[in-house]
């Protein structure tokens, strides 16, 4: 008779190993067991972890009697800091079956993931844990990447003081991914985002549509792009600002100004975004967003990092817009 790993009374038979895309089906069974109807479909998991040729993902999985009872996805990334390009690893989507929680499975997965990242030559590992897992990371020696915050703005307000600029603003169906990469995030430290990255992130999502608001000057040259998507939260139509790229601060402010969002997305009652870092926070506040205090945020937000190379000093304040991390 095959033992039931979900009713095991001890962790003695637990096995931690590295797996690839061939384990996706078993991993997704765990996702459904943990999240039920709220689980992302397997197509999303395949897209997020195996859909970009410049990202290499693997699973650190915990098995018992042939069943996956825990998983920590591990994805290689490139980041830039002080002009240097370095290899890093991000940890996302970790979960442990409810019947196996409280037995040290999650900690074992994180430790094994860091060991694998070190073997791969990564300089550091980054993650954005929830309130439950954050204490585990901190006890293991992880440190903040910078403050991760929720930003909100009402789309309609009488006091819109965004500057005038010599640009035309319009929603477009197709985007030049190479152009977006050229406009890219200029403040460091940040993720390196190539044309392939932009194509994967905003052009190949299996289910979510994105809207691109482009700014073009009088010479017909593109000077900025803002990426939006809509999502209903508890009956409220929220417009998420996922990314904004601009040749100047003036263009950036106009791309996400109340007049722009109110014109193209009149059905959305609130505009929201997430971000990590004080530089990004100042930019968003300058665009009219309110930084929600941590105690008032509906979800506790954290961003942590762990150094693997003693010769490299950990960055103190990252610059990560929502699109660089969140899969929405």
Write the layout of secondary structure elements.
Layout: E1 15-19, H1 24-35, H2 42-50, E2 57-64, E3 67-81, E4 84-91, E5 95-96, H3 105-119, E6 124-127, H4 134-139, E7 143-144, E8 148-153, E9 167-172, H5 177-183, E10 190-191, H6 195-203, E11 211-217, E12 222-233, E13 236-246, H7 249-255, H8 258-264, E14 270-276, H9 278-286, E15 290-291, E16 304-307, E17 320-321
Parallel strand pairs: 4-6, 13-14
Antiparallel strand pairs: 1-2, 2-3, 3-4, 3-5, 3-10, 6-16, 7-16, 8-14, 8-15, 9-11, 11-12, 12-13, 14-17
Helix pairs in contact: 5-6
Key features of this structure:
single chain, 328 residues, alpha+beta, Aminopeptidase, 2 domains, 9-stranded mixed sheet, 8-stranded mixed sheet, 17 strands, globular
Cα separation of the termini: 43 Å
CATH superfamily grouping of the largest domain = Gcn5-related N-acetyltransferase (GNAT)
**Could you tell me the number of beta strands?**
17
Beta-strand content bin = 25-35%
Largest sheet at a glance?
Answer: 9 strands, mixed
CATH class of the largest domain: Alpha Beta
What value does the average pLDDT take?
90
Give your account of this protein's structure.
- Helix content is 25%, strand content 31%.
- It is an alpha+beta fold.
- It has 2 domains: 5-122, Aminopeptidase, CATH 3.40.630; 149-296, Aminopeptidase (3-Layer(aba) Sandwich), CATH 3.40.630.30.
- Strands 1, 2, 3, 4, 5, 6, 7, 10 and 16 form a 9-stranded mixed sheet that branches.
- Strand 12 (222-233) and strand 13 (236-246) form a beta hairpin.
- Helix 5 crosses helix 6.
- The longest helix is centred in the middle third of the chain and has 15 residues, at 105-119.
- It is globular.
- The mean pLDDT is 90.
